Amino acid sequence: MVEEAWRRQDEPACSIERSLQVLGERWTLLVLREVFAGRHRFSEIRASLGLAPNLLSDRLKTLVEAGVLETRGYQEPGSRPRESYHLTESGRELRLVLGALQQWGDRHRPRPGGPTVLRRTADGDKPVHVAFHDDEGNQVPATDVAFVWNPVAAGLGQ
């Protein structure tokens, strides 16, 4: 019965799987890292990542189609019109995802010299950490967080 409910849907029921349809390619999060760092032009992103143009084009197209990035036209004097890439609200929310990946990497895949980028408050240079919080704003240890099946969303109940 559970299998039947999953098959009736046009897209995966799992939010993680749906997210990975957009974000799951190796280069995608690195492209987003570059946009967060202020690199908005194709040439800037490509130069920073050393990524083949066809792969970068594909990643940018996917992110634009998914509403994570939006394009804005610009034109350098004497050059043809081009597009730059900017985060949408959906894209800006991925800062948390990148921060969580960075935090995990700092802890479990550390470099001998320490992290190359630190997470700090914008105004006070205080260290910040990615964490779970309840509706009242209290931090909840990750070990106390459960991912609970929702049969209603899966079409199995009311």
From TrEMBL:
<protein>
    <submittedName>
        <fullName>DNA-binding HxlR family transcriptional regulator</fullName>
    </submittedName>
</protein>
<keyword id="KW-0238">DNA-binding</keyword>
<dbReference type="InterPro" id="IPR002577">
    <property type="entry name" value="HTH_HxlR"/>
</dbReference>
<dbReference type="Pfam" id="PF01638">
    <property type="entry name" value="HxlR"/>
</dbReference>
<dbReference type="InterPro" id="IPR036388">
    <property type="entry name" value="WH-like_DNA-bd_sf"/>
</dbReference>
<feature type="domain" description="HTH hxlR-type">
    <location>
        <begin position="14"/>
        <end position="113"/>
    </location>
</feature>
<dbReference type="InterPro" id="IPR036390">
    <property type="entry name" value="WH_DNA-bd_sf"/>
</dbReference>
<keyword id="KW-0804">Transcription</keyword>
<keyword id="KW-0805">Transcription regulation</keyword>
<dbReference type="GO" id="GO:0003677">
    <property type="term" value="F:DNA binding"/>
</dbReference>
